[in-house]
Amino acid sequence: MRKLGRRSFLAGATAASALLAAPAIRAQTPNFAGQTLRVATFGGGWDRAVHKYAGVKLEALGAKVEYVTAPPRDNLAKLIAARGQAAPFDVVEMADLTWVDTYEAGFIQKINLDNIPNRKELLPTLADEWKVASWATQEGIVWHPERFAAAGVPGPERYRDLLHPALQRKIAIIDISQAGISQLLVGASIDEGGSQENITAGLEFVRKANPFQFWRVGAQAVTLMNSGDIMASTMHAGFAVQMRRAGLPVKFTHPKVGPTKRGLSKEGWLGVVKGTPVARAAEFFINEYISYDTQFGLATERGVVPINNRARDALVNDPLLKEMFLLSEADVANMVSVDFTKFNLDDATQRWSRMITSAK
Asked: Which of 60, 140, 188, 263 is least crowded, fewest Cβ atoms below 10 Å from its Cβ?
């Protein structure tokens, strides 16, 4: 955007006036020399991908960028543990199930949206003065068609299809500590007549599935799929993209949910941690995170769905992403979104823990 503005300016100005205006243009370019921005985000290579596209832009202006990698709930726990002291990071990446708790606990501060010009390429609901959307994922089932065929198991269309006897101890399920667990529990529950508030059927699905492993990092499920220990895993479509690019012939199912719905969506959010001494650098980083280049790069490399409209539109030109993602406006509108005013994560965690303990 800076290049376009400069070209436009030069086209309508004389050489003399351009020379006079040059210092003003340079003054608008932030200088972050000597500053260190600490970003709480996911590990497993996500941090490196974010740095590749967004972090380097900040470093080019003199800053140093460090990443604190952990799931969103663990990062929220770190903020709670540090209450009354200096926060352990300046930007926090929140999942949809943790941003409300992070906000209500007073851990984030208002964002100067004038410093986030790229928000113009987002839907209006995806940015406000407290948070800016960072990505979206589509939750469902990654499965290996050759292993399913060899075992005589039809490809899954719903979560309940993973209860086939031949799949006992042959699937992995996302752990209760991870951001996508709410989508699994709500989706499996609604499909069996439950609701966002009543997730008994979802917990019962997990118990009956008798998984080989509950994964806390997506790379665990990828390793198990590579080794042949599992035939399927509940996870988002981005992992299917990564596996296919690595040579694993997996497919992805957007589960049917109830009579009409298909697929489950999950959003990520970025916030500026309250009291950070590098707020302007934090806002610059967030602006770069939602840029076309970063969003398209993360989509093609890591398999998330861009929240940048222009980047999302560009995905239809990639055959693999077009196969794995639901991209049309109608399909996206028909997906299930978890209502966190109804889904009670604390209650779900307690009931999950009791279920796992009693099964041992």
From this structure: 60
CB 80 within 8 A of CB 257: no
What is the value of pTM for the model shown? Answer: 0.74
Per-residue pLDDT tens over the stretch 266-308: 989 999 999 999 999 999 999 999 999 999 999 988 888 999 9
| CA separation for the pair 202, 204 (Å, rounded) | 5
Residues in the chain: 360
pLDDT at residue 193 is higher than 60: yes
Q: Which two tokens stand for residue 149?
A: 């065929």
Residue with tokens 């398999």: 303
Dihedral sign computed on CA atoms, order 41, 267, 273, 31: positive
Angle value at C-alpha 252, between 177 and 213, nearest 5 degrees: 35
* Whole-number Å distance between alpha carbons of 155 and 252: 10
- Angstrom CA distances, 153 to 159, 225, 258, 288, stand at 14, 17, 22, 45
